[in-house]
Amino acid sequence: MGATGQKVRRSPSSMQDEKDNTPMHAGFTAVPSKEDPILEESYRSARLSCLQFVDSRKWHYFLMFLLFVDFFGNCVAVSFTSQDNFHKFGLKARLASSGCAAFYVFDMFIRLTSLRAAMFRNVPSVFDLLALVLLGVSLFARFWKADDPKKVWITEGGFIDKYDTIRSYKSNQIEQYLTAVYCFFVAIRIILKPRSRTFSKKLHKYANHDNLRISMSSLRASLRRIPGITAVAVEMMETDLVIICGRDEGNMSREELMQFLQKALLYRPKDLSANAFLAHLRDIDAQSNHAAYGAFDVVKSTFRH
């Protein structure tokens, strides 16, 4: 360097020993995150709360009760009527089914918003969604082809054999058959609903990992105890930590921890494998709104995702 060059010194980090001779280098500027972590965490917390609501016991049994009443009521209407008199009960049955369908759509909308792509990893959930769509189509057909005594149209048909003429008559009043199809899809949903709920309930505990707050001080302490780690490597990892998090103390999110670990693996000792390096991070403390987690849970969940 020229004689006019200026030396820039950086104050020792909290991870550096007093007797460490780590060379100092130019300072750096933390890169701000593009997304607001508070808003992102609030959004995920809202999704989890909505999912827990639709998976709660009260809501589940309320919805199952509606499905049963909807199925039983329409089955009675179909069983004890005929094409000639179904129009007397058709309007009431359609309105009752429409009220129940409103709750079905609300429940499925909350599930799709909360689970998003994860919902399509479960076969019963996919078929439950398909059954709801077909249920809605059949309900629309019931309104479209509603029986009306003023619009009865009877078609004569049949065939002639060598002995006699066999005649048949067909009516355009087919709402009774459409109601039977509607009952079939309601029955499918009664079968699939508990299975899809079981799948989504398993995701509750994994969703809590998205709200984990990992202590940065415990991470620093764990890094210093890794055997064979050099002071220069520790200094570089601390630099990456501050750049990723935008701060040098407090807590970090699971995404920030994952980004840091991917970079930190580059500074591990040559004779230390990646699994052994991560195994030494046993003092990382993390907590959510409901529970506390150890390093094993944090690291395992991070790399599973």
Task: Walk me through the structure.
This protein is an alpha+beta fold and 305 residues long. The protein contains ten helices and six strands. A four-stranded antiparallel beta sheet has the order 4-3-5-6. A two-stranded antiparallel sheet has the order 1-2. A hairpin with a 4-residue loop joins strand 1 and strand 2. Helix 1 crosses helix 5. The N terminus is likely disordered.
Could you state the order of secondary-structure elements as H and E? Answer: HHHHEEHEHHEHHEEH
Distance between the terminal alpha carbons, to the nearest Å? 47 Å
Highest-level CATH class of the largest domain: Mainly Alpha
- Low-pLDDT segments: 1-8, 13-35, 289-296
Region (Disordered): 1-30
Keywords: Membrane, Transmembrane, Transmembrane helix
Subcellular location: Membrane
GO cellular component, one term: membrane
Please tag this protein with its features.
305 residues, alpha+beta, Four Helix Bundle (Hemerythrin (Met), subunit A), 4-stranded antiparallel sheet, two-stranded antiparallel ribbon
Layout: helices, strands, pairs:
Elements: H1 37-54, H2 57-79, H3 87-115, H4 123-144, E1 154-160, E2 165-171, H5 175-207, E3 213-215, H6 216-224, H7 231-245, E4 251-252, H8 254-264, H9 274-279, E5 286-287, E6 292-293, H10 295-304
Antiparallel strand pairs: 1-2, 3-4, 3-5, 5-6
Helix pairs in contact: 1-3, 1-5, 2-3, 2-5, 3-4, 4-5, 7-8, 8-10
In short:
Helices cover 58% and strands 8% of the residues. With 305 residues, it is an alpha+beta fold.
